[in-house]
Structures are given as structure tokens and as C-alpha cells.
Amino acid sequence: MFVSHRDEIEKKQIADKVIKQILIGPDQGWEDYVMRLFTLERNGKAPHHSHPWQHVIFAVEGEGNLFMDGKVYPLTSGSVAYVPEEIDHQISNAGEKQFVFICIVPKRGDA
């Protein structure tokens, strides 16, 4: 069993204006997946990339854009997205405030 709050979980700066937190994963007892919380500051963006695993996204707060397979998908609080494996994608902050989203990947996707 694991109970916490996002304010109590370690924050790691993984790129300029991008903070990652591992909310739940193998260390908390969820062996197969990792639920991460990303905070993108104004003008922040994750690198453009693809990988051999799928993931799901849930927008928590703010405004963002998901660039996926040559298209742009606006994301706002409550938006959900599924990104298949091997699809080029990138997430960026599209607003004036922080863009916060949850991303769940298989364990191997957070190595």
C-alpha cells in the first residue's frame, strides 16, 4: 500500500523547464507500470522522440500541445491521449502558466 501527495514526492529537473515526478511505480508496489507527473513551465517542452512502448497521458492543469505523427492535438485540463509505440511525439506547454500532465508507461519505459 502507498499513499502520498504530489507535493511530497521528489522532483527531478530532466530538461529545461521540465520537471518529472514518479508518483507510483515499482518502488511503491506497482511492478508493471510507472505513473509519472510532468510539469512544464511556460515555454517548456519535452524532446521530440519515439520509443518501443505505448503510453497514456492525462492533462491535469494548464494548456499544452501534443505533437504526434505530424499532427497537433491541443490538451487542456481533463484531456486524455494514447500514444502508440514507435510514433514520433512531443508535448509542449501552450499557455502562460504551468502545464501539468500524468504519463503512464510500462516499467521498461522509465528505465
UniProtKB/TrEMBL annotation:
SUPFAM superfamilies from the UniProt entry: RmlC-like cupins
GO MF term (any one): metal ion binding
InterPro entries in the cross-refs: Cupin_2, GPI/OXD, RmlC-like_jellyroll, RmlC_Cupin_sf
Keywords: Metal-binding
A Pfam family matched in the record: Cupin_2
Domain Cupin type-2: 37-105
Superkingdom field: Bacteria
Record-linked PANTHER family: CUPIN TYPE-2 DOMAIN-CONTAINING PROTEIN (PTHR35848:SF6), OXALATE-BINDING PROTEIN (PTHR35848)
Protein name: Cupin domain-containing protein
UniProt source species: Sphaerochaeta halotolerans
